[in-house]
Amino acid sequence: MKKMITIFTVMIFTMAMSICSYGQKLGTVRGPKLKWGFVDKNSRKEVIPFKYDDAREFSEGLAAVKLKDKWGFIDEIGEVIIPFNYLDVGKFSEGLARVCSKYENPKEWGLVEIKAWRFIDKIGQEVIRENFNDAGDFSEGLARVKRNKKWGFIDNTGKAIISFNYDDANDFSEGTARVKIKRNWIYIDNTGTEVYKDIFAEIQQEVMSEFKNCPYCGEDILAVATKCKHCGEWLDKTATSKVPFKPKKGSFCLEVQFKPLGDIVIQSNPNSIGLGSAGVSAKCFVAKKSELRIDLLFGHSKDKEKTPVPPDNSEGKEKITTNTTTAFGLNFGMNRHFNGTERISPYIGFLLGFGVGKTEAKIDNLDFISGNYSSMKIKTSGINFMIPTGFNWYIVNGLYIGAEVGLGLSFEKEFIEIEISINGKKITTNPTASLFGISFYAAPAIRLGWKF
């Protein structure tokens, strides 16, 4: 009887080893229609059809595959062993695999997703039911897991073997694991006892101490960081070859802007004025993607038209019509930039400002008579609100050009004064104030700036 049991055990063990060995002979390949399947590593022949959206290598006889945004596990002949129920999975190691079945918290501004990880066995049963923020595969009897922003290690029953004291952690290998406490990396054994410090990390930190901002994304980093926590780039010696074109927190920009078309009035009271055709702007980045801005705008135009003398006019004086406009504006506001590309930085913002202007329409030699004239002066003041949107393109580090289009709404009040002189007799009206007028306008502009 004992001999029969021994033979049966050997047969089962041999079959299991054969299955695992066969699984190791299969490799993942992306095939037609960008689908994934498995081929024999030696013959390169298709073994499991190309029908999966993603796939990972076999481990302990099972492979993780993805269909329609969900992960499951198949065996070496393509049979589904564990259904497609998971948002993400790891590989099977020491009989267990980590799986993510839901998000624990909603998105914050569309950026932060916190996953809930558990562990299952090879028939899909949940062995460790506690939800972890992150997890690694089992190695040497322990798995690293993250709980409340700290890392620790558990065994295959879910029991915490090494306390959750670490800011980062790696899997165990050859009896030790590399873990991080604040800025320092150390090695611990399977009881959590410190074995030695990571000397290489300390050397690398000293080399990187010159970086106050990440040369890839511009964010502030710790002086001893080796990896930017914002964009994920490793800050090795090659990082100095990456030029940080875009501004970072604390950057100051000074620019000039031109409005070749002026302010395009879409709907307004008849005597509305724009906020100027040129200007200067000062901007300060209070965060990597947020800038405060102040705009000082000004504009001046003068048109003169002469009307020929009629043939029957004895005075011989031509009528001269002159229109002169001068305007000033002062805006305060903020822009919010988006990722864009390495050199292009799109943005949208808001501006609140104040504008004043003066328009004078004068006709000399009225009725072609010398000394006769009429003049209408309109002084306008108001407040405006505008939503600008545009982009900056950094030509070199520091110098950029940009384009902007703003849609604005202006509330204006006018003071009108009329003066007429006929045959030496001058008639002047007292300035009269009109009610507030509302103007809706567009303000296209091109800009040239320098980042300090």
Can you count the beta strands? 30
Terminus-to-terminus distance: 87 Å
The coarse silhouette is elongated
* Mean model confidence by pLDDT: 79
Largest sheet: 8 strands, antiparallel, barrel
Q: Tell me, what is the CATH class of the domain at 252-451?
A: Mainly Beta
CATH architecture tag of the domain at 252-451: Beta Barrel
Fold-level CATH name of the domain at 252-451: Porin
Structural class: mainly beta
Total DSSP helices: 2
- Low-confidence regions: 12-22, 107-112, 206-211, 221-225, 234-242, 268-275
What oligomeric state do the depicted chains represent?
single chain
Strand order of the largest sheet: 20-22-23-24-25-26-27-30
Approximately what portion of the residues adopt beta-strand conformation?
A: over 45%
Portion in helices: under 10%
Cα Rg: 37 Å
Which helices and strands, and how do they pair?
Layout: H1 2-24, E1 26-30, E2 36-40, E3 46-52, E4 54-55, E5 63-67, E6 70-74, E7 80-86, E8 88-89, E9 97-108, E10 112-120, E11 126-132, E12 134-135, E13 143-147, E14 150-154, E15 160-166, E16 168-169, E17 177-181, E18 184-188, E19 194-197, H2 199-207, E20 252-258, E21 264-267, E22 278-287, E23 290-307, E24 319-337, E25 344-364, E26 373-394, E27 399-422, E28 425-428, E29 432-433, E30 437-451
Antiparallel strand pairs: 1-2, 2-3, 4-5, 5-6, 6-7, 8-9, 9-10, 10-11, 12-13, 13-14, 14-15, 16-17, 17-18, 18-19, 20-22, 20-30, 21-30, 22-23, 23-24, 24-25, 25-26, 26-27, 27-28, 27-29, 27-30
